[in-house]
Design a protein that fits this description.
The protein is an alpha/beta fold. The chain has three domains: 7-103, Rossmann fold (3-Layer(aba) Sandwich); 133-198, 2-Layer Sandwich (Dna Ligase, domain 1), CATH 3.30.1490; 204-391, ATP-grasp fold, B domain (D-amino Acid Aminotransferase, Chain A, domain 1, 2-Layer Sandwich). It is built from 16 helices and 15 strands. The N and C termini lie far apart (57 Å).
Length: 392
């Protein structure tokens, strides 16, 4: 392997740390950046870490930081990210950054489409992909149509989740009644545009993800699918305990779709299987490495390494067959989800402990540097305690 190129990772969440861990196993030199709060929790001995300006509010300053680093490198570093803020930033300044870094993203208009939930749903429907009933409310008539069509409870989701969560740290808002929707929609709308959507029945295990890596010429270099077991928060959240699982039907849906929209680079789509009709229904697309991507390495398809090889023109062999049954566990989130489900859904301690059986990939823990795991667990537990006090 030619490892003369360093790697630069923009993101020190569990997502970015998963990228760093995989690269460190290959003894690749790594530089990692994130904004101050994320840097304090996620900084790791496995990389040269620094806080950086915000990609949302300090674009020019962040660009200067990266270009300064790039100019010091003998060979162009490979640029990675696991967060939408940085995806938008890199895409926006791709011309300037490509002079100093190696990376592969879809065209900017494709990125804007798939990160905008309203446009992404329209795109999916255009390609005959089933979706949950979804409404945009711009006036009283739209509100009336949504109320008459939807069954309650339903959910509010931000159109641009990465921007909405900077103001209101929620992935979705549960709406129990039509009266609540009418009362709360204007308040949440102040934080960003929203869609109103039906809730597809079924527990966390009905969620599936499909990931792909297409090269510049839309040749498929990697594919992977997984099933959620638990997520955090338990109702509307991100993965806490998942398992690698080949789902051919979803490859049949996603591969033609991604090719049609030229979704090159690394991307992931989420679906929920509707128990009412057995149909997989589209939830969202992320044009980047996703939270649980580190499972791919344990399951025999290392997206992080394949991306490095491809960007440095080392012609990786396509990896299209995965090992099923490998678990990915974000320990503190899995524990907090268990506490919630123990009360609401009857999840027992035995159920919780059985989740550790078999081959595993830990989301954060690394014997080479356990401190990001310790800091993240502490932060999650403190926040859970504060939220519990607020509820009293």
């Amino acid at each position: 392997m030619n490892d003369k190129h360093a790697a630069v990772v923009l993101d020190l969440s569990a997502n970015g740390l998963g990228i760093i861990k995989r690269l460190a196993e290959r003894n690749i030199e790594i530089y990692a950046f994130d904004t101050e709060k994320s840097y304090r929790i996620g900084k790791t001995k496995l990389a040269t870490c620094s806080p950086c300006p915000s990609p949302l509010t300090e674009e020019k300053e962040l660009l200067d930081v990266l270009i300064t680093l790039g100019k010091k490198q003998k060979h162009k570093p490979v640029l990675y990210t696991g967060a939408d803020d940085y995806v938008i930033f890199i895409s926006k300044y791709r011309k300037e950054l490509s002079n100093y870094f190696l990376f592969l993203f879809p065209d900017h208009d494709v990125i804007e489409q798939v990160l905008d939930k309203q446009r992404a749903y329209n795109l999916a429907l255009k390609h005959n992909i089933p979706c949950p009933k979804t409404f945009i409310i711009k006036n009283e008539d739209d509100m009336k149509t949504a109320i008459e069509t939807l069954e309650f409870p339903c959910i509010l989701k931000p159109v641009l989740g990465h921007e909405f969560r900077k103001i209101i740290n929620k992935k979705a808002i549960l709406i129990q009644t039509a009266e609540q929707l009418q009362a709360e929609y204007p308040t949440y709308q102040q934080a960003g545009d929203l869609i109103v959507q039906e809730i597809i029945p079924g527990d966390n295990s009905c969620f599936y993800k499909v990931a792909t890596f297409f090269d510049e010429n839309m040749n498929l270099l990697a594919q992977f699918s997984l099933q959620k077991n638990h997520q955090f928060p338990a109702q509307f959240g991100t993965g806490a305990h998942i398992v690698s699982k080949t789902v051919p039907e979803l490859f049949d849906i996603c591969l033609p779709f991604f090719k049609a929209i030229h979704l090159k680079g690394v991307a992931m789509a989420e679906f929920k299987k509707d128990p009412r009709d057995g149909v997989y229904k589209f939830i969202e697309i992320n044009p980047r490495f996703w939270l649980t991507h580190s499972l791919t390495g344990a399951a025999g398809i290392d997206f992080v390494y394949l991306y490095y090889l491809s960007m440095t023109e080392q012609q990786p062999i396509p990896h299209l067959v995965q090992k099923d049954g490998v678990k990915w566990i974000y320990l503190v989130r899995y524990y907090l989800t268990y506490l919630t489900k123990r009360k609401q859904e009857g999840m027992t301690l035995r159920d919780f402990l059985s989740g550790f059986k078999g081959e595993k990939e830990w989301a954060l823990f690394s014997l080479r540097d356990p401190m990001p795991f310790v800091r993240s667990a502490y932060s999650h537990l403190v926040n859970a305690w504060k939220n519990k006090r607020k509820e009293k």
